[in-house]
Amino acid sequence: MKTSRLAREAASIGKTSELVTRRQTRSFATTLNAFSANGAAAFAAKQEDNDDDSSSLSSLSSSGARDIEDAAGPSSARKRKRGTATPRSTVTTVEATTRISRRKSAIKAEDGPPAKIKKGRKQPAKKVVNESGEVDIHPPANWEIIYEAVQEMRKKVLAPVDTMGCESLAEDTRSPRDKRFQTLIALMLSSQTKDTTNAVAMSRLQKELPPPGFTLEGILAVDPVRLNELIYAVGFHNNKTRYIKATAQILVDKFNSEIPDTIEGLISLPGVGPKMAYLCMSVAWGRDEGIGVDVHVHRITNLWGWHKTRQPEDTRAALEAWLPREKWHEINHLLVGFGQTICLPVGRKCGECTLSTGRLCPGAVAPKTAVVKKKRKLEEVVEGSGEGVKEEVEDVLVKNEDV
């Protein structure tokens, strides 16, 4: 069949239009991939390369042009079957956690200026030779200021030793002899044991020992296995069971069923050391013949720079050389409570201690700040549409921890 000239021209125009549409579609797909992979910068660079082609084809394909959002939207919608509802869901994931610690920096309070914590200067006790050639011990220059400051802080906070210390655990209804015996047993149980745990063990002895109860005679009569069960919570309870049974028998044989009234007699008992002996003399007999130095007294006085000692007995000798005798009994109770509430063995609360802000403590340290940043990705699929809405939320948690 012969084809007219008009038909041949129309066919030629149709082929040209199809070729232009194919080129436009390929150019647009390439641009979309570049934008998704490398962001706006890659899209701009690709757009410059395609400016010549796009400008020449824009007039021919204006009816089929779409932006990126139009291109991305219908594609996801077509994949979902008609008539199926998309449930609403929220997915939370933790992306990263960052921890930043500043040991020496000051911490800004929410309602006040940064805490200024600076170390004080050590002012230990000094040995001075007088004119007669004798050695005098001069106390630390600022010891009274420190002592009074600690007394004020102790009045504001109740420590376990205030209500559960060994000197307050004996039964008030017992005779003086039985109360002294219970005080001795409480001190023997307190070694390597917290005051709260020791108080529980003492309460069980007072309530669960068979008649005549928690007395020297009752300890002698109780079976060792049962005694061990009653004090099971304290540290080294097996050894302490043997020590208590042996001590009870020694008191009957050597001390007329009474606890010794001398330091030498108390130290001769199994499981009784110098600290227990001096505290027992002070509490049970009312005589302050020495300072009971435990780990708190030894640690804190060295931290203040009053002396430099290695053992509690060395600390006791150093303190007794200059500390007034009327403070020998109370310093143990004072510093034990201070060590339980503020000047802890681990994690000292220097930010709450007036000695730190007053530059009185050589061992003061600034609290460290832990800044924890957490990023959460929230992805929400809205019902009725195939598009997901993503949002990143950053949570910042600031923790103040003392060293």
What descriptors fit this protein?
single chain, two-stranded antiparallel ribbon, 403 residues, alpha+beta
Offer a quick outline of the entry.
By secondary structure, the protein is an alpha+beta fold. It is built from 16 helices and five strands. It is flat.
Task: Outline the structure in words.
There is one protein chain. The protein has 403 residues and is an alpha+beta fold. Helices cover 48% and strands 12% of the residues. The protein is built from 16 helices and 5 strands. The protein has helices at residues 5-49, 51-58, 68-79, 143-156, 160-164, 176-190, 195-208, 216-221, 224-230, 237-254, 263-267, 274-284, 295-303, 312-320, 330-341, 354-357; strands at 90-102, 126-129, 135-138, 368-381, 388-401. The strands form 2 sheets. A 3-stranded antiparallel beta sheet has the order 1-4-5, with no helix packed on it. A two-stranded antiparallel ribbon has the order 2-3. Helix 1 (5-49) runs antiparallel to helix 2, helix 4 (143-156) packs across helix 15 and helix 6 (176-190) packs antiparallel against helix 12. The model is unreliable at 40-46, 52-79 and 89-112 (pLDDT under 50).
H and E string:
HHHEEEHHHHHHHHHHHHHEE
Please tell me what the overall shape is: flat
Instruction: Please report the total strand number as a whole number.
Output: 5
Strands side by side in the biggest sheet:
1-4-5
- Look at the structure and give the mean pLDDT: 78
Class inferred from helices and paired strands: alpha+beta
